[in-house]
Amino acid sequence: MSDLEAKFEAAANLIAKGTPTKGSASTDDKLKLYGLYKQAKEGDNTTSQPWSVQWETKAKWEAWEKCKGKSKETAMTEYIAEVEAQTEKFGITPP
């Protein structure tokens, strides 16, 4: 595992298991992380667009679609930076 991948996994673990102490992230904050995570893990979104009535699924699909074309490394780097920003903003503490 590369240093970047190790930092990415640590950031993902912090988001999954950490505890915010200054409020909670907005849906937009969560979707930004979701899109970058999916891009880093799976690459470009090739799934078909969900129906509009599936609002949660569609929001996630759109977040991932916004990251289309980014390399795995770029998505990981941006994810780590966003986690750092949200950690500071929401006071996320490690598990």
From TrEMBL:
Signal peptide: none annotated. SUPFAM superfamilies: Acyl-CoA binding protein (SSF47027). Gene3D superfamilies: 1.20.80.10. Keywords: Lipid-binding. GO terms for biological process: fatty acid metabolic process. GO terms for molecular function: fatty-acyl-CoA binding. Residues 4-92 form the ACB domain. Pfam families: ACBP (PF00887). InterPro entries: Acyl-CoA-binding_protein, Acyl-CoA-binding_sf, FERM/acyl-CoA-bd_prot_sf. It comes from the Eukaryota. Belongs to the ACBP family. This is Acyl-CoA-binding protein. It comes from Cladocopium goreaui. The lineage of its organism: Eukaryota, Sar, Alveolata, Dinophyceae, Suessiales.
